[in-house]
Amino acid sequence: MTTTAPEHLLRADGVTVRFGGLTALDDVGLQVEPGSVVGLIGPNGAGKTTLFNVLSGVLRPTKGEISWKGAPPPGKRTHHLAKAGIARTFQGLNLFPMMPVIWNVMVGADRTAKGGAFSLISGFGRHHRDEQELKERAMATLMRFGIAEYALRLPGTLPYGVQKQVALARACVSEPELLLLDEPASGLSGQQMDTLADQIRGFSQHMAVVLVEHHMDLVMKVCDHIVVLNFGKVIASGTPEEIQADPAVTQAYLGTPADEGPSDGSPAVVDPSLGNGNGNGNGALR
Ligand SMILES: Nc1ncnc2c1ncn2[C@@H]1O[C@H](COP(=O)(O)OP(=O)(O)O)[C@@H](O)[C@H]1O
Ligand SMILES: [Mg+2]
């Protein structure tokens, strides 16, 4: 049994995940400290989403342990996680299309309210005072995200960038201690990505963040610590500077020795269209 130092909010030890004959994660370890931003990167097929699902309790590892504040993970339903102080966004938007923005955010605010998401939708068993409080908290969060004007709109009628902000607001409204973000920058413009970078740094004043992301410039800008996966193994772990200087990382992305990689010093960006020869259409670090 592993002992967990109290300063670790989330810890993975020796995590192995097998899907039939395929080892998606092989003996992976990772720690997240309060208030830190941890990036999870690696070529396509490296095991990032699988690790993300294990960290968020959605997937049980074949071997190894996950601990949340020194205890087993709280359960895999979103409201179990929310109650324990963990929130996540999904690779897609995962918003309820038939519910106005404010309702979508209220569902996320349910951590401290008495009823569940079902009672929010049905109105069943919820006190008027609870609902009022949820609404106020959701509205305050929409204001904080600068999207209060869209409170009564259906998500599908809004630009994609605004919908991403709604998803983020829904995750943050419960004031989690850990926010898990799965590719939050996908589909965003450069300017929207700058806003997101500022937001993520802002979040880390109050919570820890684990970020799975393809956009290396964003990862390098916002992360305190980066873990690099390749073929399900951790091949590097360190500060953005250490990761950028690590030949094993360059090699994993390019499939060539580091000294054959680009040397123009340009910011690292993953181009998923470039393969590295591992058969999964891996991206390149450049
Ligand atoms: N549910 C699953 N069943 C079988 N294989 C899977 C499943 N999920 C992922 N894999 C495989 O595990 C490996 C890691 O996948 P994934 O975690 O999605 O990588 P990444 O997110 O880094 O692109 C890939 O080879 C993928 O095909
Ligand atoms: Mg993935």
Structure description:
Keywords: ATP-binding, Nucleotide-binding, Transport. It comes from Nocardiopsis exhalans. GO terms for molecular function: ATP binding. InterPro entries: AAA+_ATPase, ABC_AA/LPS_Transport, ABC_transporter-like_ATP-bd, BCA_ABC_TP_C, P-loop_NTPase. This is ABC transporter ATP-binding protein. The chain is an alpha/beta fold and 286 residues long. It has 2 domains: 196 residues, 3-Layer(aba) Sandwich (Rossmann fold), CATH 3.40.50.300; 82 residues, P-loop containing nucleotide triphosphate hydrolases (Rossmann fold, 3-Layer(aba) Sandwich), CATH 3.40.50. The chain contains 10 helices and 11 strands. The chain has a 6-stranded mixed sheet, with helices on both faces. Strand 1 and strand 2 form a beta hairpin. Helix 3 packs across helix 5 and helix 3 runs parallel beside helix 6. The protein is globular, with a radius of gyration of 19 Å. The N and C termini lie far apart (41 Å). 41% of the residues are buried. The C terminus is likely disordered. Bound molecules: adenosine-5'-diphosphate and magnesium ion.
